[in-house]
């Protein structure tokens, strides 16, 4: 392996770790499927950037973050449920992405690709993930209070609408880092599946986070080894399939009882 391939593997493992923590909160807040749809908001930006011969991840970042803010704004202004607003924006984004993305680039945009990564790209990715972790730590009390008692959170001065926006942005930024490896269709899978595994064994929120993060990292490691040994298998689908197998295999052990 070259040094740049090691860079890519390191970032993929860090992404899996952070995705496990974000996914744990998303599952607890019953937002996993809504969050899954958010990853598809990157498609129009990916397609437009490819058409204009720009960095596709830059285009994905713009459309993903703008789409996330639009979803939040529509939810706040219209009073519609989050899944309704996300569904409307999702359908529009998916159609735009299919129209804008060049046909020869569409497969990679949807499913990603594992390849060499320059050190500056690694550092940018680590900076994004570090920002997400910092926000999770700083907002942890408010997020947990909002999770278990929104009324009490509001009474104690927590600004629920802004907290909701920040969490959606954290989810979107996590997905953004994973787009390079897993594409717009699979990036959120490493947020969903490890969290589902963690929920099976969690006895507390701390163990929930830990098991989810470890399951994600195990999936990335196994998917990488599998794609190396079997060249016909791409990294992204291999990672997601292994995560799904881990989830199915988790039923062979007794589930934990949350405290």
Keywords:
globular; 12 helices; about 0% strand; ABC transporter involved in vitamin B12 uptake, BtuC
Distance between the termini: 44 Å
Find the CATH superfamily. ABC transporter involved in vitamin B12 uptake, BtuC
Q: How do the SSEs run, as a string of H and E?
A: HHHHHHHHHHHH
CATH architecture: Orthogonal Bundle
Quick structural gist:
Helices cover 81% and strands 0% of the residues. It has 259 residues and is an all-alpha fold.
Description:
The structure is a single chain. This protein has twelve helices and no strands. With 259 residues, it is mostly helical. It has a single domain (3-247), classed as ABC transporter involved in vitamin B12 uptake, BtuC (Orthogonal Bundle). It is globular, with a radius of gyration of 18 Å.
